[in-house]
Amino acid sequence: MIAGIVLASTVVAPVPDVAGQGLVMAVQALKDAGYERIKSTDVSGRGRIVVLRRDWKVCRQQPGAGAVRTDTRRQTQVELSVVKVGENCPARVEAPVRPGFMPALSGKSVRVARQSLPGRTTIRITDATGQNRLVFWDTAWRVCTQTPAAGQPLTGGPVLLRTVKYGEACPAR
């Protein structure tokens, strides 16, 4: 007690291992251990928003299992990389692309492609099947090919993305 004020100390347990669990159970385990700031991100490449936790599973977590909060002034945020139940977790999470260079977009959703490019980039999106369908629902379409190629400088010219709907095969060039 300092000058009539009681200082409460919050005891936080080490971060539990929630990788592989359903998102509902993972979030509850983290809350039970004292972690309230929990962020879930779709790492499938589709850029979906996590709405119903019961439909998702945890692939990875940051900080990792066993880590202990070192900054007692603010709550540690636990970030969970998730995919829909029934989907496979990606083998790796790609490193961020250097500014001014084209990211690797092949296999990613049109939404993720748009979010990965600088805001003023001109993007041309076409149906790679030749059916000239409109790409309306951007999480339902995935990139087959891109111009410029991944790693090439972005020079201000338009970016061309050839796409198909998820579940369709990319046509041979």
Describe this structure in words.
This is PASTA domain-containing protein. InterPro entries: PASTA_dom. Residues 9-84 form the PASTA domain. The protein has 173 residues and is mostly beta strands. It folds into two domains: 1-93, 2-Layer Sandwich (Trypsin Inhibitor V, Chain A), CATH 3.30.10; 110-165, no CATH class. The chain is built from two helices and six strands; from the N terminus they run H-E-E-E-H-E-E-E. It has helices at residues 23-32, 110-116, and strands at residues 37-42, 56-62, 77-84, 123-127, 141-147, 159-165. Strands 1-3-2 form a three-stranded mixed beta sheet, covered by helices on one side. The radius of gyration is 21 Å and the shape is elongated.
What key attributes describe this structure?
mainly beta, 2 domains, single chain, 23% strand, 3-stranded mixed sheet, elongated, Trypsin Inhibitor V, Chain A, PASTA_dom, PASTA domain-containing protein, 173 residues
